[in-house]
Amino acid sequence: MAIYNHIEGINGVIEALWVEGFESLRGAITFDTGSPFDDLASAAYGYRNFALSNRGLYTVMFMHRFRNFEPSPSAAQVAAQAFDALVTTVERAQVAGRAFAGASARDAAQVVWAACHGYVALELLGICFAADRDGTFTLLLSALRDGFR
User: Fold this and answer.
1) pTM of the predicted model, to two decimals?
2) Which of these, 121, 120, 118, 89, lies nearest to 106 by C-alpha position?
């Protein structure tokens, strides 16, 4: 009961976990080494590593809908900032070369995010039949990179 003295009810607990998750995810996918293509790959691997290392937070963020929970505008902004970190990385890759030709940075980032999420969600749910999960994730990233050229 002590936690409820600091956070408003169960929705407050869920929101606190949600915000913590997106703040941590933003850190896990933010890279600026001067090599935009390497940074983009690192962001994708960071996304997967975050999900696999933080299954509970990832579940709260993406894989379970809680009845009567709607993130506050400030919490939704934290989630948007995580996505915007990926958009920035995509923009840098676009400037550096032919990556994501013809796509807006936001649209390309959404595709990258969705592909990473889909792969990770299958892994977390135990519906991944790849013999080499790491290698297959790398294959997914290569297919995205080559497809956007």
Assistant:
1) 0.91
2) 89
SS3 category, 68 = coil
In the chain, count of helices (H) and strands (E)? 6, 0
Instruction: Provide the phi-psi class of 116: left if phi over 0, else alpha when psi is between -120 and 50, else beta.
Output: alpha
Parent domain of 64: 2-147
Could you give the number of structural domains in the chain?
A: 1
Q: In angstroms, how far is CA 65 from the centroid of its own chain?
A: 17
115 vs 93: CA distance, rounded Å: 18
Q: Which two tokens stand for residue 1?
A: 């009961």
- Whether the predicted pLDDT of 61 surpasses 90: yes
* Amino acid, res. 127: I
